[in-house]
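Journal club prep, shared notes

We agreed each person brings one worked example of a sequence with its structure written out as tokens. Mine is Gliding motility-associated C-terminal domain-containing protein. I'm keeping it raw so we can talk through how to read the token line rather than staring at a rendered picture. Sequence first:
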Amino acid sequence: MATHIRAGEITAKRTSPAGSARHTYEIKLTAYFDMQNGEGAANAQNSVFFTIGSVNSERDPNYKPVVLEAPRIQPIPNIGNNTTQNTYIITYTFPTAGLYRISFEEDNRNNNVLNIGPPPTQNLNFYVSTVLEINSNFGQNQTPVLLNAPIDVAAVGQRYIHNPGAFDADGDSLAYRMFIPQRSGVNGSGINLQYRDPNMVTPPGATESGASPATFSMNRVTGDLIWDAPVTKGYYNVAFVVEEWRDGALIGQIVRDMQIIVEDARNDRPEIKPLPDICVEAGTLINQPVTATDKNGDKLTLTSSGGVYDASLIPPAVAKFTVAQQGSQGTVTGLFSWQTSCAHIRLEPYDVLFKVEDAPGPGVPNPSLFRKLVDMTTVNIRVYGPQATGLKGTAVTDPTGTAYRLNWDAYKCQIPGAKIAIYRAEKCTDIPIEVCSPGIPAGSGYEEIGRVDINQTTFLDNNGGEGLRPGVSYSYRIVAMFPRPGASPSDPGYLIGGGESLASAEYCLNLPLAMPVITNVTVDSTSTTRGQITVKWIRPAVAAGLPAQYRLYRATGQNGNAFTKIADINTNLTPRAADTLFVDKGLNTEANAYNYKLEYYTTVNGQLTKFDETETASSVRLEQAAAQSNQVGLKWTALVPWDNGNRVHRVYREDKTKPGTFNRIAEVSVTGPQTFTYVDDGKDKYAADGTVDVSIVKDSTYCYKVETVGSYNNSQIKPSVLYNFSQILCVSSSDTTKPCPPVLSLDPLNCDSLRAHPEAFCTTSGFTNHLTWEYPAELDGRECDPLVTAYRVYYARYAGDTPTLIATVTTPPSPLETSFDHEGLTSFAGCYFVTAVNRFGSESAPSNTVCRDNCPMFVLPNVFTPNGDNKNDTFQPLECPAFVQSLEFKAYNRWGAQVYSTKDVNINWDGKTNGGKELAAGQYYYEVTIYFESSQKQSTPVTMKGWVQLLR
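Then the structure, token by token:
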């Protein structure tokens, strides 16, 4: 009855060669035995049995998994805490690819574990499993290995931390989640034990810092298992899963069952100073000091673990961790050193664990009562590829037209299977180059146009054989892409798991601009009749086709596309000609934004001929936004070809003591590309031009304008920074009264009237639901905002689905009620609600939700004549069956025997049995169960019973 098993897990490593059709794996159990209470049983455990079976078949009672005996390798007799570490290894060839569970179970666990049951725990068997996906595309795949032993001592009232030190040599991504300890079940599967969270065995106390209650959790990303803090001493067992992910797919998982020993400790735990994560270019020598302290002055042992120390898990050189004065009292310092190389490049970071353990110093009274405590921390080290250098390009003659030959320096890291990816953008484009952010950032404007082997230094860009556009300034960058360690080239994610290099410096061809570019659409004055906007552009640098002409067009509205020509401007492209500016006058800039485009004409065969046109650019439109009653909310937009994001815009407010004078009150850092906001609370937050504060009060008017700041981010376009003003907006302070939800109703369906005209159901579309609603003056004693400017109508086909916006109904200030016809429906069934929107864009809560069902129409005749005369030959519904989702029809003879059945919504019974035998003339009885389309996904069935006369 000796009890001995404390903890353990199963790992696996593929040993068959890459590309081999054999699926041979080394399977290892690492088990931890209790040498205090079960030494005899532990010593006698010379072998164990693995159960290996298909995950998809293990619940089949007739399925027989493989059971294999594995011998014990030389054990480690004492890893601390009266525990021995034993490993058992076999080699097994899986018959086919698939999803397999490898499990181990053995009697008995060690006794007196407080949080699993039923007690006594020495009668519970110990069980762990690993799920492994066998797939030839995974190459030399292996499960993660767990480098930190699962036996630790925690102290009552002190924060405890454990990390398994999981390392995946293949560079796969790891995630962690808690799991319930198990015993063995059918065919190698597991059955959950009775389990309580260790923190709930007794009422939880406070954390180490005094917060309440204590906590017990595991970090899904880092794997840190933290108990802050235990209350009751004793043994506790917990389990967790280490998940292995590749390219977004779960490809394996390990269950570790571990034991925490909680003791009363007349001691405080040591602490390691927090360490930053590290990002380095391959080839960098890392030297990271690590310091641990103990406020009691205890002796300290500082150690480190991780795959970076093991030459069987990573290519050399491996890392080193040295501690000059191990066992120092109070403070100890170590140095982590690692000479990284090209062989260490990968997408996922390397995790390195640092652990400090204390021991009694010479001044500690009663050393026999001392309990060693630990602290640990994990550092992520990311190794990325070096930046490619020397990228240049030249124009070349190519049958396809314009083409460019790119060349670059030989890449530093010649990793077999790696590639150079070539990216192109259609302008000189700045992108941020940041360590820890290799590759090309999303949204940068670059697209990948090709790949070459890592040893290549040239690429011809002829746009896939179609030729490049003449006159376009193309920008290029290159990035090295690396294979996942051990991956097969046939793996779809071959070049994903290995990571990327930093993007190279830009090479921009800097071709002369062949087209003008609009740079400014700025509002000079705000008026309903005398508004003025200045439009500016830059000349093309290519002086071809002289003389030339600009033609400027305007449309009303930022998205306006009804363009009208407003000017013809001749140019000879001389440097000082005033031909790149037009002042557009007589506009209603108070009510409208305006959109502009420029067409460029050159002389071809003596005729002005359109060469191209610019992208459109709108004026800046300033509007009021929602805010508190003592504030003014502002929002502005500009639909322009340049970038107004990631800049600082300027907000101006009129100085009421100096009418017409605007004072800058704020500079707003913006990131979004289109819509920007600011809330004015009256404080002037820009002091450079003097501080003018005001008190924002209701019903008082304040005037504003904004100045956007943008850029094309193109070194050829000058000026590089573009400034444009909005119109002046004069508003009162925002009213915070939100609109109230309307009260919605649906016109009732007159089913009797509809059934009187059954031909109406023969169409499958064209139905209409008529909605009406009223807007309340007040709700629950609260005044509702009377200035509603629109209603939004939402619809869901089924109750419980998320409604979608189907219409925005604008409404005059009064009357505050309206209606909407939802037309073109194939069914009346559905659910609706309506919201109200005020002038600040604030939306009310939803109205009452109204759901409607259909008027079902299903009528069966009482006679049919299946005699082949093409008249009433089949038994089917009269007119058109309406809104039938599904049905089941059964016909019986007069003795109650079923003679026919169908699920055809039109029934179409031809007077024969399902086997094709003609039935005799006579009376038959039927039962039909019908599911009609309704507002519920699972509609209530309707059962109809009747009889029909079959005549021949």
